[in-house]
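Input record, target 12 of the design panel.
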């Protein structure tokens, strides 16, 4: 039971970390868009496009990691509940 509780807490921690990272990526994207006047010239727009692509990939990665951690937490919770139910049936 302790191991499943630790697994659940790790999954929740991973979910929280990915949400925070996603928020930071979105803030970076917004800052890059708001500060577009700091990029001068056409060649710098390609750098802005490159930054946008990288931040978008980071957002997708964080979303995937969040979903994996969510499913891991859900599966561990179900496993923990089943284990409790089996132990209660044995006692009864």
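The sequence produced for target 12 reads:
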């Amino acid at each position: 039971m302790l191991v499943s509780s630790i697994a659940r807490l790790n999954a929740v921690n991973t979910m929280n970390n990915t949400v925070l990272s996603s928020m930071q990526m979105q803030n970076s994207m917004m800052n890059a868009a708001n500060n577009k006047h700091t990029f001068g010239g056409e060649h710098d727009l390609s750098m802005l496009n490159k930054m946008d692509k990288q931040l978008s990939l980071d957002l997708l990665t964080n979303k995937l990691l969040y979903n994996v951690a969510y499913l891991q937490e859900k599966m561990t919770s179900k496993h923990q509940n089943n284990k409790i139910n089996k132990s209660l049936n044995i006692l009864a």
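The chain is about 90% helix and 0% strand.
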